[in-house]
């Protein structure tokens, strides 16, 4: 199963993404991830969620092959709705969500990390939105939660990446550690939160979300509208196919 849930210690729920080779999720995978995070928060025995991944990287976004294999727009609509559901599940989770990021965090990965309450990362972790190179738009909403506005724009327009140390400098990554210490670092932070009165922490999560200056759900869906326009114009299909062809040639 690409999405698994476990309770390694009292009060701590760990949701793991494991979808080789690069943790690019299918439509079903995005919805399953959202369901797992939401269910964890609804469990009164859960005080904090750790969102992590196995493999080379945290998340590479949507499964482009699935979208290209669909002659219509069903997979595209499903991917957009699935991403929105998963991002919302992280943001709206009744308890704090800690994202433990290793390797690459791209596209949809930015949506997850950007909506998390705390981010810890491995030393080699990189973050970015390659959307403009794929003929799509989205998750600028979440990248803007990780970096200042002008840097977000530069990264977005150039499809460039930024590393964990730079994000730590901006204060959006809590700690940067060697890859082998990432899981324990996330768990250690989770233990500190789990030890608090969960009634207070759950109220605090609602309060903090309530004073957020940006409505992340509305702004992300606004971005997605332009993705649909690009798809209707045929731009996105061309870009996705070029990406897949480059992968074939590299192989």
From TrEMBL:
Signal peptide stretch: none
Highest rank taxon of the organism: Bacteria
CDD domains referenced in this protein's UniProt entry, alphabetically: crotonase-like (cd06558)
EC number: 4.2.1.17
Pfam families reported for this sequence: ECH_1
Coiled coil: none
UniProt KW Lipid metabolism keyword: yes
Keywords: Lipid metabolism, Lyase
GO molecular function, one term: enoyl-CoA hydratase activity
InterPro entries assigned to the protein according to its UniProt record, in alphabetical order: ClpP/crotonase-like_dom_sf, Enoyl-CoA_hydra/iso
Statement: the UniProt record of this protein carries the keyword Calcium: no
Similarity section: Belongs to the enoyl-CoA hydratase/isomerase family.
Name of the protein this chain belongs to: Enoyl-CoA hydratase
Organism of derivation: Amycolatopsis magusensis
